[in-house]
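dude i think i finally got it to work??
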Amino acid sequence: MVIGTGRFATQLVRRLTTVVDVPLHVVQCGRGHRTSQEEVHADDLVQHTYARTPTLSGPRGREDLQALLERWGPSVVVVATSHYSPYAGGVGGVPFGSSLAQQLPVALTVAEVAHTRSRPPLLLNACYPELVNTVCSMLELPFHAGLGNAQTLNWSERADEATRVLGHHAHLGSGDVAAPLVAATDLRTVHEPSRSELDRIARRRALPREQRNAFGATAAGDLVATLAASGTCTDLLPGVGTFGGAVPVSLSLGSGAAASAEADVLLRPEDATLARARHRAASASEGWTFDEGRLELSAQAAEGMGAWAPSSTILDAAGLRAWATRTIASLHGTLAQGAHP
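look at this
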């Protein structure tokens, strides 16, 4: 199930229809005006169903998503939409962490619904997973991993051109951010990038936003296709637990009626510590850090949130839950009046 009908979601679904080699039913959910349950058969293997839902977050969204998951029983759910759009002006001039109030509601609602099921699906989030997945993990509603962003730095149809990067959303931004770490061929150890690797990373970072996002969506489609075909895959993905940026992870749908989907980080302890430190530095450049069970926002990020800013810039799980509840209610009130922040 793919939640979203924007550019990333559309490219992901398009990629699935071209690379999957097993029978697959893709249910795409969105708030558009197409007829509910309109079915499009892309080819002999992939069936594509569009399911319209009036809203995707808040109390009504919870009910709608619960009905969709009950009807279709997906093994994988991809969140590919939020109330934030990088094509609508974004949060220019303030740290990207300021977008949390707009990035979180849909993902959090999906996680809440999915975790009520006796066997939750494998959950993947493509909307600022470095921060959103960290918050959901703090609230004990974890996604298994993220998509997009750091995946963009890793995807290549030609294996000899791939530089395996433990990237973060910030590593696709300005040149002021320190270089990410690079994983060895077996993905289990990391090292500082060489000059040639830095050059490859710089070329990928320099691509226009639309092209970068298309790479991320294509990589996401390849990952979901691999999961559909074999039930497992290994990749460098952001948003695993509270790591934030990308780490080597093994994903599994589980086998047997009672088995649960799993995500296992493959790094050695010393490399995991190094990755956390590097991702923390990248997160700080975006106005947030996670440490010892608490999320801390910079003063600039909180100011950029405007009326949606929490009363404190340091939040534990209880504070985050209270803030998220108030913010989602306020956001829906704003959208209902036709206004935008």
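Residues 33-42, 336-341 have pLDDT under 50 and may be disordered.
im so relieved honestly
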